Every structure is written in C-alpha cells, then in structure tokens.
Amino acid sequence: MPNIIKPVCLITGLGEGTGGFAARRFAKAGYKIAMIARSSERLIKFEKELPDSKGFICDVSDLTVLENTCKKIKDEMGSPEVLIHNAVKGNFEYLLNGKPEWLEENFRINTTSLMYLAHFLIPEMLKNKKGVIIVTGNTAAHRGVAMTPYFAPTKAAQRILAQSLARDFGPKGIHVSYVTIDASINTPWTRSRIEHQKNKDEMEFAQPEDIAEEIFRISQQKRSAWSFDVELRPDIEKW
What are the φ and ψ backbone dihedral angles of 185, each rounded to 5 degrees? Predict the structure, then answer.
C-alpha cells in the first residue's frame, strides 16, 4: 500500500478547552497535530492520547522562542497545512485599576504572535496552493466595554490582521477565517474564574467540542463558499 503523508495541523494555546478539542477533532480526521502550550504536563497528556501528535513548549509572547519553535515543528513534523491560533491573554479590569503594560503583553500573545506565525506558514502554503488559518476570537474583537481597555484593542487588531490576510491570500488558495465565540466556554478554568458562573447550567456555556467541530467544518469548506467572520453562541445567549 502507498505511504500516506498526513497533513499537519498546528494549534496554539492547547488546553482542556477549544484547543484540546480541536486537536482531538483534527487527529480523528487524520492530521498530525503540532501542539503549542506553556505547560509540559498538558502537552504530555495529549501526546499520550493522540496518535501522530507532538507537543512543543512555547510561550508565544517570546517571539524568538516562537520563531525557533516554528522551525522545529517544520523540521520534525513538516510544514503545517492548518493553523488554529487559539492562544489568548486578557485582563478584565477598569482602566485606572490596571497597568498600561498589560496592553502590550496581551497584544504580543493575541496579535503579534499571529503575524509571526503567518510569516512562518504562508510561504509554504503558497507553494502548495492551499492552507487554512483559523483564529479564535470573541466579542471583544467587535466592541469595547468598560472592563476591556487592556484586552479589546488587541482582539480587534487580531481580527483586522486576519481580515488583511484573508483578502491578500484568499485568492491564492489560503483560507483565513475568524471565529467569534460569543459566550463563556465550558471549561474547568472558566467555571472557577467567575463566581456567578460556578453553578450555571451547561446550556448557558458554549461547549468546546461543538466549537471544535465548527472549526473543523470551516477548515473543509470549498473555495466557492468560504467563510471569514463566523459567530458562535448558545441559543439562549443574549446578543
């Protein structure tokens, strides 16, 4: 039988939420999974669970380390055909209660790292005349509220960067999509972070496995019907 070369899917911000379920969904579909996270424990867990997966310890805000990690992924696994940029950092605080440097810290993880990843991935995608870049976002990318002055500007910039990539490289075979998740995601972290969410009903959260399924569906769209802005929310979410 011929040796089948599996495509590579690179996921940043791997965890027990969207990133982890996306890794499982793409692995199920026959992809090799390159996983980026800051926690070696988390990466080892998924390496044991998913065939043809490999974890890379990397804080994407350290741009030199990110560049070196990208080179290592290409050397050890091949050039990724799919990128899911799921790494995120945010501070939810009123302006005068926060620190100005928070904005730059968030910008590096949410937006600057996406620029570096694009520079790494897109040349090879252009050679192959195909590729997918999916960025996970939230409503902060579309509006600022009183408690998001250190977060919303970075997500808005992230979405506009993704839109620029989509307009430039879409006609060249690279599908770029921005997925706005308008809800809290059902993970142990989100359950414990906000007091009033600890006992919320399951149906009030976006389920990470369902988000991952939609991300996979977007990645498989035909070129005549590509999505850029995709909004996901539970049916009871007010919007």
Answer: -95, 140
C-alpha torsion sign, points 192, 111, 59, 211: positive
CA–CA dist 205, 2 (Å, integer): 44
**Rounded-to-integer distance, Cα 38 and Cα 42, Å:** 8
Q: Edge-to-edge, what's the strand order for the sheet holding 32-37?
A: 53-57, 32-37, 8-12, 82-85, 131-137, 174-181, 229-232
Do residues 233 and 180 make contact, with C-beta atoms less than 8 angstroms apart? no
H/E stretch holding 136 reads strand 131-137
Does this model's pTM top 0.85? My answer is yes
**Token pair for residue 94?**
């009123």
pLDDT tens per residue across all 239 residues of the chain = 456 789 999 999 999 999 999 999 999 999 999 999 998 999 999 999 999 999 999 999 999 999 999 999 999 999 999 999 999 999 999 999 999 999 999 999 999 999 999 999 999 999 999 999 999 999 999 999 999 999 999 999 999 999 999 999 999 999 999 999 988 887 766 666 665 555 666 667 889 999 999 999 999 999 999 999 999 999 888 88
Place of tokens 């979405």: 159
Tokens at 55, concatenated: 């974890």
Task: Supply 57's token pair.
Answer: 């310890």
Distances from the Cα of 189 to the Cα of 95, 136, 173, 194, 213, angstroms: 24, 17, 37, 9, 21
Q: How far apart are CA 98 and CA 91, in angstroms?
A: 8
